[in-house]
């Protein structure tokens, strides 16, 4: 089995046509090794979400190759891609994307139901316990705080035991305490369970929880830092975000 959970080779993603086309990703080559936690940072519009979506099979690159544990995504049909996402990939969105009419337990069980599998109640509860919500299983999203909703979204992403978990600004809408809880969970999943996590964040403190930080500028990889402090990451970001005034 490949050492890399995900590998992108020369991935370009262009939106629009000729006159108005935008190159969101420009020949990006990057690997995410198994059992590691990577943060992706860069100015707004630099291609972070596009990178995650291409790597997770939610979007198709214009050219280049994406492999998930050795499976080439670009050759898969829509159905093949849907199955791969369902079985092997977890995705957490900034806006949680929980269904308001379902309880925490029902939201977490949803990916299994969509896959035609019968969710085991004890497994659903175990995952909710893992994210610290064992006492909230019957609550609906509106009855929970932002941090709790984000943890339900994490539990929902984990229920299928994905090979890779992608999180697009998972702490963007949270206060600092809830952010710390979510980050500690992500860190713990990498350390204790060998998960592979790729997280987009604007926050140097959040990014410092990762093993390495990859910087994107104008759709290209612009260096990386390993084991860096929040201060080092903030200093690097400041050099990337300089705008002429
Ligand atoms: N569906 C789309 N159609 C056209 N252009 C798009 C589309 N999605 C993204 N883009 C463009 O691609 C570029 C990269 O967008 P992307 O969402 O990946 O940036 P980002 O780094 O995630 O930014 P942010 O930090 O603001 O979330 C931007 O210039 C954006 O306007
Ligand atoms: Mg984005």
Automatic annotation (TrEMBL):
It comes from the Bacteria. Keywords: ATP-binding, Nucleotide-binding, Transport. The keyword ATP-binding applies. This is ABC transporter ATP-binding protein. GO terms for molecular function: ATP binding; ATP hydrolysis activity; transmembrane transporter activity. Pfam families: ABC_tran. InterPro entries: AAA+_ATPase, ABC_transporter-like_ATP-bd, ABC_transporter-like_CS, ABC_transpr_LolD-like, MacB-like_ATP-bd, P-loop_NTPase. The keyword Transferase does not apply. Residues 6-243 form the ABC transporter domain. GO terms for cellular component: membrane protein complex; plasma membrane. It comes from Actinacidiphila cocklensis.
